[in-house]
């Protein structure tokens, strides 16, 4: 059986449709858009040639409708999963913020305890300095007679 030019063209159009559905076009952009015009371009045919092949055009329209319906379902599912992902991400961020706040409070309390210890130590030292000052003043009031050198008189 001899393959006719019509059969070759129909097969080129079907192959072009399949490449577009698979997302692996050879002659057009791989942007996920499918139309009858794009099938013509992908097949390398002249503008409007697909309209001369009603069987291929019917198959292509059905495939395009199914493809668009699948994209819409996937888009809805993706947006739902994106919402769940966003919620999960927000919860994780909230938990991280809570942990950072807890760490901050622990550090603040630790620094406050250190500061309190420093103030206590400074007060103790100041009190000891005051005691020593009083002791020095008490010694200055006593009569101390300096010793004289034997060689000097």
Question: What does this protein look like?
Answer:
The chain is mostly helical and about 150 residues long. It has one domain. The chain is about 75% helix and about 0% strand. The chain is built from 3 helices and no strands. Helix 1 packs parallel to helix 3.
Quick summary:
This protein is mainly alpha-helical and 153 residues long. The chain has three helices and no strands. The protein has one domain (5-139).
Biggest sheet details:
none
Tell me the Rg in angstroms. 46 Å
User: Oligomeric state of the chains?
Assistant: single chain
Shape: rod-shaped
Average residue-wise pLDDT: 84
Estimated structural class: mainly alpha
Total count of domains: 1
| SSE order | HHH
Q: Poorly predicted ranges (pLDDT <50, ≥5 residues)?
A: none
The residue fraction in helices comes out at: over 70%
Helix count, per DSSP?
Answer: 3
- Whole-Å distance between the termini? 151 Å
Instruction: Please indicate the percent range of residues in DSSP E strands (runs of 2 or more).
Output: under 5%
- How many β-strand stretches? 0
List the helices and strands and how they pair.
Blueprint: H1 5-22, H2 36-43, H3 54-140
Helix pairs in contact: 1-2, 1-3
